Amino acid sequence: RLGTDLEWRMGRASVKGEWTRTAFRGVTKGVLREDAIFDAWYISAGFFLTGEKKPRGQAVKPRKRWGALEVALRYEEFWGRQALLDKGFATGTDRVRAIGSGLNWTPNKHIRLGLNHIHPFFGDPVSMGGKKLNGEDVFLFRTQFEF
Length: 147
What we know:
Mean pLDDT: 93
Number of strands: 8
Oligomer: single chain
Structural class: mainly beta
Number of helices: 1
Largest sheet: 8 strands, antiparallel
Radius of gyration: 19 Å
Low-confidence stretches: none
């Protein structure tokens, strides 16, 4: 596994990117043998609407009594080797791109609540329940406690 990331914080705004590669050498299926290599990367940005600065390695301390509010955006891609699909090691698609947006509320330095919408676009249609899908919509709610 190999990866790298970069983060830039500028007062109320932050930008982060990451790239990873995961390789499994010599995966076998019967008499077939193939290297399974997967790459992924993303870039995300956040901005505090309520004026807080995003500290590194520390909890956000809200300036307002009702908490801190952050908006976030993200773009990501994942791809594998087409040979894995062609030789029957897997089914589906070898590439997924996704866009996401979110809203994070930090009522105090111990609690963070997040609501995210993610829309992946599949490189090839994926069969699910007898239907062919080119993408989907995912809604996530996240709760984080920090002490």
